[in-house]
Amino acid sequence: MTQALTPGSAIGILGGGQLGRMLALAAARLGLEAHVYCPDPESPAFDVCARATIAPYEDEAALADFAEKVDVVTYEFENVPAHTASILAAHGLVRPGPEALATCQDRLVEKEFLELNGIATAPWARVDDAGALARAVAKIGRRSILKTRRFGYDGKGQVMLREGSDLAVTFRTLGGLPAILEAVVPFEKEVSVVAARGADGTFAPYDVCENVHDNHILKLTRAPARLDAAAAAEAVRMARVIADALDYVGVLAVEMFAVAEGERVRLLVNEIAPRVHNSGHWTLDGALTSQFEQHIRAIAGWPLGATRRHGSTVEMQNLIGDEIHAYHEILREPGACLHIYGKREARPGRKMGHVTRIAYDRDP
User: Fold this and answer.
1) What domains, with CATH codes, occur in the chain?
2) Which residues, 6 or more positions from 194, have their beta carbon under 8 angstroms from its beta carbon?
3) Cis bond leading into 348, ω under 30°?
4) Distance between CA atoms of 101 and 98, rounded to whole angstroms?
5) Which of 69, 104, 253, 295 is deepest in the core (most CB within 10 A)?
6) What's the rounded Cα separation, in Å, for the pair 137 and 176?
7) pLDDT, tens digit, for every residue of 189-232?
């Protein structure tokens, strides 16, 4: 096993958004130096990191220089070019590893990985051209979603198939890019497991949480999810199978659909996020160890922290676009924990911050 880092070591973070910002703050709290690499000079993580590199992800010289200045590299989003991760891995330690990144940033590869490891998903089919889309629709049906294999998040890179829609036109809507067709499942709720796996294989899950989306963007997370004990245990088991199969080091999130089947609930994995996750933001105020500190601990080779929840329930609400302007009212609210990401412009659909509320007086 790679030797654990010591205080004063440097954590390299690819990506300068709010997740990178919160990782940098967690690293500093543990006496570690955060060095953020991002091409956007307006990145909010630059406000709180010890060192910064502003360069394209394709700049091999800048990447090599960055790798030489840090003791481990991690990333805040899964759309880092695979070649970037490979370059960095040639120069030093990358956690989670490039193989996990490659698996999770391609929806087809991810679905095949889940199938290989016995993890249930919604019915799906590979779509490389308009003819393949027609065959996939014949197999799966019109209640389905066409998704690009790569670079999709918050509803981007996908389109719903409707009755009477022209399949060739629909395929071109996504730029004719390689895609998958996925069946729409009649789920009761969306849930996720945020968990950490250490370099020694230790696995530490947080409570399964329940998520509500608005226009494909996460709006509200509640922990714990309203699942029975058996379903919650199964969700955690599936997340552990995934983390072990990827030989994962760090925090990951596994998003799932909870589908009612008579008296029981069936869980179908929607996607894997190989990073800290929006649905884990509640842990900043609502758990003994936040997901951000946990990720830093894991990639540094340190012991993982306790994941116990504070209170009976915790709710996290994203502040999207102009909602951030309500910060005065939120600050007046007793018990509300406000986080503002430092982004300079509030645009529609842009995550500007979040607020956490912890309840101590009602049953989970």
Assistant:
1) 10-94 (3.40.50.20), 123-183 (3.30.1490.20), 189-359 (3.30.470.20)
2) 205, 206, 209, 251, 252, 253, 276, 277, 279, 280, 283, 291
3) no
4) 5
5) 295
6) 16
7) 999 999 999 999 999 999 999 999 998 899 999 999 999 999 99
